[in-house]
Amino acid sequence: MARSSLYQQVAAELRKAIYLGALGPGDQIPTEAELMEAHRVSRNTVRLALGELENEGLILRMRRRGTFVRERRPLLIRPQQELLSLNTGEPRIDAFVHAVTSEGRQAGQDIEVAIVEPPEDVATRLALADRALAVVRRRLRFVDGQPYNTNDSYFPYAIVADSEIARPGDIRRGANRVLEELGHTQVRVVDDISARMPTPDESSRLQIEPGTPVVVYVRVGYDPEDVPVRVAVSVLPADKHLIRYELEAR
């Protein structure tokens, strides 16, 4: 049997054990020597198998400690929560904060605010003129003190220049409420969701393990005149998040 088939067979057996729960989150994978003996293969074959599982995000290899099944406690995000109180006059709900606190966990964030010429794709979504400015509120968000995702929200500078949105610090009632007060209530949103591998900067900031992709979640909010007033770009490590939509037939 070819060497490539051997390492794929070893990887398949370990993968099955992980998915069936025989090896649970945090459990240690047998050592290279134990896997060599159990499968009657070479050390190189075992390392190729473990490398494949690491690239799939199933295991974590830690120097001097061994190889472990990765902990998986995905955060359940329900994007509809952000717009639940659209017509009730109640405070808007931040989908991230709601998701974290509803699980009894602690949410936190670091916020940076800047006036920028936004990336081309964001400028297009905001329907901005050439070289028009936007205010961006960049958030690095934490769960129980661990970096979980980033969220960059862009607003047309012409709309929010004199508001709290353009000033540093948290907005307790939420940026969406400020938009409402400015006469730009969001009545419609468009979500785009894609996946890719993280950039080196994202891997560092979010402490992403090798082989873990990210989900890029882009939401564009429109006011009653169908003017785009916000573009929110979230980068979510795929092993830490579950996005759930509930749709009702009309």
Automatic annotation (TrEMBL):
SMART domains: HTH_GNTR, UTRA. Keywords: DNA-binding, Transcription, Transcription regulation. The keyword Transcription applies. Residues 4-72 form the HTH gntR-type domain. Pfam families: GntR, UTRA. SUPFAM superfamilies: Chorismate lyase-like, Winged helix' DNA-binding domain. Coiled coil: none annotated. The keyword Zinc does not apply. This is GntR family transcriptional regulator.
